[in-house]
Amino acid sequence: MKKIGMLTIGQSPRDDILPGLREILGQNVEIVEVGALDGKTMLDVKKIPLRVEDYILVSRMRDGTEIKITKKYIIPLMQEKLDWLESQGVRLTVVMCTGKFPQFRSKGLVVTPMEILKGVLEGCLKEGKLGVVYPTAEQIPMGEKEWSRPSVKVYSDTVSPYKPKDVEGLCNRLASQNLDLILLNCFGFPTDIRNKVAAKTGKPVVQANTMIAHVLAELLS
Question: Residue 102 burial (CB < 10 Å; 0-12/13-18/19+)?
Fold first, then answer.
């Protein structure tokens, strides 16, 4: 049986999204989950300085509590957990986050979703208007920097993937923007939100976790 590592920036297991990924990956794959914050407490998390310049990220604890951390804080912990995964014989690991990450030290392949998503969006949308939905308002200013191109304008918005409030309002705002394509830019966004956005806007919606799961299935085939 082939092994795949799933490295979340929060805590494992990710029971909220793993069943959907399993449907795509199939049953003949051994999934080894680990979280960068495994072994940490909420008190530890609350001590993290949340400076915008340190790149704020959103994830969840094991009990489902939504948390905010920073890339500066989490990257060393991610490397530790990746080393552990590889000690278990894993040679293909996916980072369960759409943020931009550096090259990790690895004996195998480490899939970072952002670059794949960029390739998909650039291949699909040569010109027009892209909607990007972030999990927290602090990330909205990054929309233009991360996703715009000379021929592509970006509209950024936000809703929590874990404790969503006013999804209807989000859908209405997206529908009013005359978008050509929409990205749910967090690995935690569920299919339910994707379906609501697609139904209201009538536009193609990229759900990051399922898109990456299809790529992983190809790598494992």
Answer: exposed
Single pTM value for the model: 0.94
Alpha carbon distances (Å) from 54 to 6, 80, 204: 24, 20, 32
Joined together, the tokens standing for residue 162 give: 């874990």
- Residue 87 CA to residue 105 CA, distance in Å, equals 13
- Reading the block at residue 102, the tokens are 């550096």
For 115-207, which CATH class? alpha beta
Chain segment 62-102, per-residue pLDDT in tens:
999 999 999 999 999 999 999 999 999 999 999 999 999 99
Question: What is the rounded CA–CA span in Å between residue 91 and residue 163?
Answer: 33
SS3 for 173? helix
- In sequence order, the 6+-apart residues with CB closer than 8 A to the CB of 12 are 6, 33, 34, 35, 38, 62
Q: Do 2-112+210-220 and 115-207 share a fold?
A: yes
Q: Where are the domains of the chain?
A: 2-112+210-220, 115-207
Q: How far apart are CA 135 and CA 58, in angstroms?
A: 7
Q: What is the CATH code for 2-112+210-220? A: 3.40.50
Q: Which helix (H) or strand (E) holds 90?
A: none
Task: Note the pLDDT tens digit of each residue in 123-139.
Answer: 999 999 999 999 999 99
